[in-house]
Specification:
The protein has 559 residues and is mainly alpha-helical. It contains 30 helices and 2 strands. It has helices at residues 14-24, 27-37, 43-53, 67-84, 100-112, 117-122, 130-151, 162-170, 180-196, 223-226, 235-241, 250-264, 273-284, 288-291, 299-315, 318-321, 325-335, 338-347, 351-360, 368-377, 383-395, 397-403, 405-414, 420-426, 431-445, 464-477, 482-488, 494-503, 507-516, 520-548; strands at residues 454-455, 461-462. A two-stranded antiparallel sheet has the order 1-2. The radius of gyration is 37 Å and the shape is elongated.
Length: 559
């Protein structure tokens, strides 16, 4: 904190200050002195990684980081993240534009430079990328996040000559250009080798020089060959996917699969087919621990996982995941990724199943009506497909009306006009759904209030008995609207409507109908009786409230 307020460039004895910082774990000050005082952005990364490597390891090479090492390791990740974003750490100043390409190069040189021969020979985990190995063990999520944001930067490759060296490490090509596709691919290849592990004999031994790169006999990982796991240059890929000893747990690999999913969307890299399918299965996988209450998955993260999966399926060739499609669709159903399942079945032209999954997702339910219209409107939809869609609509009629009865009425009127009578009959045992459907047909679509039978805008003929059925259902499920319907329509028998109003105690409707039928006295008596009943109810309430002390009645009768 004190150093932040000084001009580091004017301080003397910086070497002594650095030693003090190292001895006492003052890594933030150490970053500041190296960067501002000495203009060195590489050395502090070396100091921190040496500190991490000094930590004890288990018998299989798993690091056991102390709290202090964990802290300084995360400072290093933050340091790299800030620099790659063009900011210094910890003061957040802008990095000089002329130095930024070199700084970015130094970070990737630090991550992907092979270790020296001595370190490789003594390492328990035989990978030439020891710095990468340690930081992945420390915090795979943070490190892969840094890599993902870097390779997604369109200006990064063109300004970072270090990518060319990385390319030469993992390919036999000696091109002088900085092809972003090749650079991205090389990073992915190195990650695969480091996390999934290679047979020790197949890892090219680094030379004794710390600046030398991996032998150019390393198999070339090129897009033309990657989709063929039997290609001779891809022999190591099978070993990479096989269960070798590795320090990385399933959780680490899952993190890498998530990273693969994001990076594959760039369309500049490929991974071995087996790892691509594992990535898809990971993204689709059901998380039972969430249901068991052990962990709550962030809804936003879950949504991102589903979106990444769908976008991947849209760009990956079908042959890549065709062999795992049954298992994949099962996982999708267990995970309730219905949007992806809709896409899957639509792509296969299994439109009825796509409708099923629309109805299972509360976010997609409202879209199902337009989806059906669009499919039925497409010219290349065959008659057999149309018939299957029609059958699906009729069989799922109850769920569709529960979503939106008016939309169902509109759909029947526009697309399935000949099914109106069947729909009415099928809903006889579900009166509330039948009411919603008839409401949509009669209130939304009729073009006249006078003709009997009426005809909707689409040509559906609404029979007199259907109008009367609608009035009966309205009296049951929406009685307050009966009177307004009766005074604004004439397409019903007065005698029938009166019976319905009397049956369900709709006084205003019954009085209106009696008046229309010429029984004015009967209409008035009904209204008077209704008023008396309401007064009696009011008096009973007042008396009961007074007895309980809730209402005070004065001597003059006022309340």
């Amino acid at each position: 904190r004190i150093l932040l307020h000084f001009d580091i460039t004017k301080l003397g004895a910086l070497d002594n200050l650095l030693e003090v910082c190292k001895d006492h774990g003052l890594f933030i000050a150490l970053f500041l002195i190296y960067n501002i005082g000495l203009g060195d952005y590489y050395a502090p990364m070396r100091v921190v990684i040496d500190r991490l490597k000094a930590e004890p390891q288990s018998s299989i090479g798993v690091m056991k980081f102390s709290n202090e090492s964990d802290f300084c390791g995360h400072l290093l990740l933050l340091y790299m993240s800030k620099l790659l974003a063009g900011r210094t750490f910890p003061n957040g100043l802008s990095v000089p534009a002329d130095r930024l390409p070199l700084i970015k190069s130094s970070i990737f040189d630090f991550l992907f430079r092979p270790c020296i021969e001595k370190e490789f020979s003594t390492a328990q985990i035989k990978t030439p990328y020891q710095n990468l190995l340690y930081l992945l063990q420390l915090d795979a999520v943070a490190l892969l996040g840094i890599l993902e944001s870097s390779i997604s930067d369109p200006d990064f490759v063109s300004t970072t000559t270090q990518f060319q060296r990385i390319v030469q490490q993992t390919t036999s090509l000696q091109s002088s250009d900085t092809d972003p596709t090749r650079a991205h691919q090389s990073i992915i290849d190195i990650l695969i080798m480091t996390v999934f592990g290679l047979d020790e004999k197949k890892v090219p031994a680094p030379s004794s020089s710390s600046s030398s790169s991996v032998s150019t006999t390393t198999p070339a990982i090129l897009e033309a060959n990657m989709l063929d796991p039997n290609h001779p240059d891809n022999a190591w890929v099978k070993d990479a996917c096989a269960p070798h000893r590795t320090v990385f747990t399933r959780q680490h690999k899952d993190i890498l699969f998530h990273f693969f999913g994001n990076v594959l969307l760039l369309r500049t890299v490929v991974v071995p087919p087996s790892l691509a399918t594992q990535t898809l299965m990971f993204l689709a996988s059901h998380r039972p621990d969430v249901a068991e209450g052990k962990r709550v998955e962030n809804p936003a993260e879950r949504k991102r996982r589903e979106d990444i999966l769908q976008r991947l399926l849209e760009i990956l060739p079908t042959r890549l995941y065709g062999s795992i499609k049954p298992e994949l669709t099962l996982e999708l159903e267990l995970s309730k990724f219905f949007k992806v399942l809709v896409w899957f079945h639509h792509k296969d032209r299994d439109f009825p199943r796509a409708i099923d999954f629309h109805l299972k997702d509360t976010q997609l339910q409202k879209q199902v009506f337009q989806y059906i219209r669009d499919i039925m409107a497409v010219e290349d939809t065959t008659q057999a497909e149309r018939d299957r869609i029609k059958s699906k609509v009729i069989s799922r009629l109850h769920e569709l009306i529960a979503v939106d009865g008016d939309e169902v009425a509109l759909l029947i009127a526009e697309v399935f006009t000949d099914q109106h009578s069947q729909v009415v009959r099928q809903l006889e045992s579900h009166p509330e759904l039948q009411f919603k459907y008839l409401h949509g047909i009669i209130e939304k679509l009729t073009k006249s209030q006078e003709d009997q039978p009426q005809e909707t805008k689409s040509g559906i003929r609404v029979l007199e008995k259907e109008f009367e059925r609608y009035i009966d259902l309205m009296a049951q499920f929406d009685a307050t609207r009966v009177y307004s319907y009766l005074i604004s329509h004439t397409n019903y028998r007065l005698e029938f409507a009166l019976v319905v109003c009397e049956k369900y105690g709709i006084i205003d409707g019954a009085s209106y109908l009696k008046e229309r039928m010429g029984d004015v006295t009967g209409a008035v008596l009904l209204l008077v009786k209704s008023v008396h009943n309401k007064l009696d109810s009011l008096l009973k309430w007042i008396n009961s409230s007074s007895a309980s002390g809730d209402v005070d009645i004065e001597g003059d009768g006022t309340v």
